Amino acid sequence: MSKFRYFTAGESHGPQLSAIIEGLPAGMRLSVETVNHDLALRQMGYGRGDRMKIEKDTAQILSGVRWGETIGSPVTLVVKNRDWENWSEKMSTLPEFRDDSSAVTRPRPGHADLSGAMKYHHSDVRNVLERSSGRETAARVAVGAVAKALLAEFGIKVGGYVTELGGITATTPDEPLEALWLSAADSETSCCDPIAEIDMKRAIDAAQSGGDTLGGVVEVQVIGVPPGLGSYVQWDRKLDARLAMALMSVQAIKGVEVGIGFEASRRPGSRVHDEIFYKDGYYRSSNNAGGIEGGMSNGEPIVIRAAMKPIPTLYSPLRSVDMVTHEPFEATVERSDTCAVPAALVVAKAVVAIEIANAMLEKFGGDSIVEIRRNLKGYREQIRNA
Ligand code: EPS
Q1: Which range marks the domain in which residue 328 is found?
Q2: Ligand 1 pocket check: which of 13, 51, 333 to mutate, most ligand atoms within 8 Å of Cβ?
């Protein structure tokens, strides 16, 4: 069972998103500003649509924290939906507001609409799209901010950047990761290559005027991770497998690579595996494995990429079939984003942080930060002499 457990709840146009996190140690510093910082980042980025002009995501911490520190009990986070005031009847919990004439019966290709309606026997696709919406990722970013605060207690940092957008590939400068994170933070496409960024923004503009949408690839790195998180002994304890699942669970993510990923399949072994050296501890001169070997962290930075498909809500029509008449139609215009790849980076960092926090708690246990710190220190001394 996971140590860092959480659930999210809430519809895109309901009153709020909620998350409950269980398993946090006591004595961890946590402020709402930390959470709000990440929530604001998720709303930015070139290519976002009009909904982001309505929302200004901020969290409330409603349990599990006292005087700025966790107390070991479940943490409840809430993010209100400002748009709720425009939807309070359509999304009411009360039966008297039922209005079947407003039912959405035209499923969008690429969205959860059709399969979800069939699965849950819904005649109104709104019952599906409200929860499958990318809006849910705001709750996960809030949870991820808490996971990052836990990791920060142990000097573990999570960052990343966009490596590809709409088929335009960025060239990553040869600089330390933290410097790259800073330059990505300055970019509207979260990319470290200002030349590629110009093309990316042009591509987003062109997609927007053509009623189209764009996807891309985000890369997340984690530094300061001790070796030995995850395990080779059982399939569901492998760190890379868990990270892949976490990333694949994010709306619109279609592929995940660890380290050089698919490229490793094209090279001979001599150009893939990272040779081992020793000087005051083990180290590698390359990191093709992305910091994970045998399902365990090896002490090098964890590097993982996720591919996002273009958002399926298009202004230009894609063919679909009405679920009442079974007649073909061309999708009606819906409000949407042209590109949410920079937002997906923020979400990817959040879900990666959650998995690393979970693996840290599994390995170093502890009901308090003090206890975990002591366990980690003892382990670091133990492996120094290995
Ligand atoms: C989304 C459609 C748009 C996005 C939304 C995800 O919302 P709306 O239907 O209200 O215009 O803005 O993303 C968010 C609200 C968010 O916070 O990321 C969808 O269909 O998935």
Answers
A1: 5-384
A2: 51
Q: Which atom of ligand 1 is nearest to the CA of 52?
A: 12
Counted residue by residue, the chain has a size of: 386
The alpha carbons of the chain give a radius of gyration, in whole angstroms, of 22
Q: Which residue has its alpha carbon closest to ligand 1 atom 14?
A: 135
Q: What does the pLDDT average to over 92-99?
A: 97
Helix (H) or strand (E) holding 297: strand 296-297
44, 85, 336: residue to mutate for ligand 1 pocket, most atoms within 8 A of CB? 336
Task: Enter the tokens of residue 157.
Answer: 């940092």
Q: How far is CA 79 from the centre of its chain?
A: 16
> What is the whole-number distance in angstroms between the Cα of residue 220 and the centre of ligand 1?
23
Q: For the chain, what is the mean pLDDT? A: 96
CATH number of the domain bearing residue 43:
3.60.150.10
Residue the block writes with tokens 């991770």: 225
The answer, yes or no, to whether residue 386 has pLDDT greater than 80, is: no
Q: Is the pLDDT at 362 greater than 70, yes or no? A: yes
Total domains in the fold of the chain: 1
Ligand 1 pocket residue status of 141, Cβ below 6 Å: no
Identify the burial level of 309 via C-beta atoms within 10 angstroms of its C-beta, where 0-12 means exposed, 13-18 middle and 19 or more buried. Answer: middle
Query: Is the C-beta atom of 213 inside 6 A of ligand 1?
Result: no
Whether residue 338 has its Cβ less than 6 Å from ligand 1? no
| Residue (of 167, 174, 172, 173) closest to 199 by Cα position | 167
Round to whole Å and give the CA distance between 168 and 163: 8
Helices (H), ranges, the chain: 32-43, 51-54, 113-120, 126-132, 137-152, 177-185, 194-209, 239-248, 341-364, 369-384
Q: What is the pLDDT of residues 45-84, one digit of tens each?
A: 999 988 888 989 999 999 999 999 999 999 999 999 999 9
Question: Residue 29 gets which letter from DSSP?
Answer: B
Among residues 324, 121, 350, 375, which one has the least CA distance to residue 243? Answer: 350
